[in-house]
Amino acid sequence: MNGRPISGASVDARGRRERGSGSARRGRKGLTALVLGALLVTATACGGGGNAGSGAGGGKGKDSGEAANKQSQAVVTIAPKNGAKSVDTGGALKVTAAKGKLTEVKVEDTKGHEVAGTISGGGTTWTPSTHLTGATTYKVHAVAKDSAGLASAEESSFTTLTPQHTFIGTYQPDDGTTVGVGMPFSIHFTRGITHPAAVEKAITIKTEPAVEVRGHWFGNDRLDFRPEEYWKAGTKVTVKLDLDGVEGRPGVYGKQAKTVHFTIGRSQVSTVDAKTHKMVVKRDGKVIKTLPATTGKPGYDTWNGQMVISERLAVTRMNGETVGYGGEYDIKDVPHAQRLTDSGTFIHGNYWGGDAFGNYNASHGCVGLRDVRGGYDKSVPAAWFYDNSMIGDVVVVQHSHDRTVAPDNGLNGWNMPWSEWIK
Questions:
Q1: Integer Cα distance of 97 and 103 in angstroms
Q2: Catalytic residue among 165, 348, 364, 399
Q3: Are the beta carbons of 35 and 29 closer than 8 angstroms?
Q4: Residue among 131, 366, 399, 401 flagged as catalytic
Q5: Do the first three CATH levels of 165-264 and 268-421 match, i.e. the same topology?
Q6: What are the tens digits of pLDDT across the range 122-169?
Q7: The whole model's pTM is what?
Q8: Which option is the CATH number for 268-421: 1.20.1250.20, 3.90.25.10, 2.40.440.10, 3.40.190.80?
Q9: Which CATH code, of 2.60.40.1930, 2.60.40.3710, 3.40.50.920, 1.20.1250.20, is assigned to 165-264?
Q10: Is 366 a catalytic residue?
Q11: Catalytic residue check, 216
Q12: Among residues 300, 309, 318, which one has the least CA distance to residue 281?
């Protein structure tokens, strides 16, 4: 060492080097205290340091941190698994929760249409209320909470099968039409149905004003819906056919999704008396016309019962061979014909019957009203009745010597008691 004092320092009598001025010493001590204080604050904020258990504040901070990091015990399971393909449209979708309860389940297709469903089993299970649509991708979002109220979520996506074999339904009445008070909603399926409950569930009917409407199966390919009594005039009916994806029989799925609207017009019920050879026409409960008529002659008696007009033809051909009567008749220009049964019963104009109308029965089972060949005269009974009728009007035949028409022969389910209809 060269003996020169170090700048900013002095040497005491024992040769020890001292720090500089008192102010400098205080500044360095203050800096040290500040750094130590900051470290202490940081340690406390992160969990209370090594001595956290000795004070109430330290213990509370530790409990709060554990709660924040705790995971829900609830376990959500979605079937089918994420990414599944060719999923069945019925019975495959199910959401369950273990160690907790479901609080939210949302299932929707790529267009945002949601699938309705219900949570059951005390919150442990969710199932759809209806079938799924074929060849459609669905997304599932489900949330469950455990006993501590902590939530657990799960999501999944899957695609339903593309049906190889399908069916549709053809129906009456047509969309947007106005029909008579006797008109049922009748649907014929292109394939025989072996799962009728699933198909019937997919058809919903709403009316205004509200009335109970129930379905009845005739065989395995026809389903008719009607109220207990004739419709009330003015009723508006909406039918939703949600058949797309319904398994109607093993491996055969519906491919139809359609909404049908129709309106019930005025009430018209006409009663034909086979003994008096007259037809009384009532509209809204009041007699508006009495017409002479003829019905089936002995051996060809007309059906008794309530029959609904299902088809209207200004002119048609009637050939006995088509209904099992051989060559007994073949009339190529029958005017003002309105169908009452599938088996060939009509109420129609008759220009060849002579004086039978109002006097005796002369037909092969139809109800005949006086007409002219060509149907040009609007004043004759057959023309008047045709012009004042509509699909769905009711024609009742009574006092004939034949039995009551079968409920499935035409749109004539009114001949079945309600107690049997709803079985």
A1: 10
A2: 348
A3: no
A4: 366
A5: no
A6: 999 999 999 999 999 999 999 999 999 999 999 999 999 999 999 999
A7: 0.79
A8: 2.40.440.10
A9: 2.60.40.3710
A10: yes
A11: no
A12: 309
